[in-house]
Amino acid sequence: MGLSSQYGNIGLNQKGNGFMKIKKMDIVLLILSIVLCAGIKLIFHACAPKEDGGWMACHWAEQAIFANGIILVLSAILRLFVKSSYKTGIAMAMTATAGITLLIPNVMIKLCMMKEMRCHSVMHPAVMVICILLVIACVADIWVHFTKEVNPSGGGKTA
């Protein structure tokens, strides 16, 4: 049941008892988004500052990934509170955001010159793995939604 206001139905997901129906995929997307957002700052961060206090190029890639991570976390949190049809749209946006985040290190923002640096050996692979998992999870969620829409009975093949 959606929540009506003067602006129309905003699609809040509410059951009769006041609790929301949260699916496993909502939790998976939230966890992956939190791992990306927190991990880029705490675990697989970019290289340390230079001796003169300046930042290497990879620092700015880390900042951009963190900003996109915040968008992904907020989107995943929003999925916890909306109807299924809205979740699909949010999953589409999350797919695009995760795909763009995947391109940030070393494509959009160049990393350090030496391949042995932390940004190449730790940050870039971790971001790639998490973003690919996010894209796969979002595409799977979208696929499930559209296959249910095409075949609402959820049964096998029809003759």
Q: How much helix, percentage-wise, in residues? A: 55-70%
Q: Name the shape in a single word.
A: elongated
Q: Beta-strand percentage?
A: under 5%
Runs with pLDDT <50, length 5+? 1-10
Euclidean distance between termini CA atoms: 34 Å
Enumerate how many helices there are, as a single number: 4
Largest sheet: 2 strands, antiparallel
| Overall pLDDT confidence | 85
- Number of self-contained structural domains: 1
Structural class by secondary-structure content: mainly alpha
Number of strands: 2
What is the ordering of alpha helices and beta strands? EEHHHH
Q: Any idea what the radius of gyration is? A: 19 Å
Major beta sheet, strand line-up: 1-2
How would you describe the overall organization of this protein?
With 159 residues, the protein is mainly α. It has one domain. Helices cover 60% and strands 3% of the residues. It is built from four helices and two strands, in the order ββαααα. A two-stranded antiparallel sheet has the order 1-2. Strand 1 and strand 2 form a beta hairpin. Helix 1 packs antiparallel against helix 2 and helix 2 runs antiparallel to helix 3. The N terminus is likely disordered.
What is the compact description of this entry?
The chain has 159 residues and is mainly α. Helix content is 60%, strand content 3%. Strands 1-2 form a two-stranded antiparallel sheet.
List the SSEs and their pairings.
Layout: E1 4-5, E2 8-9, H1 24-42, H2 57-79, H3 84-103, H4 118-150
Antiparallel strand pairs: 1-2
Keywords:
mainly alpha; 159 residues; single chain
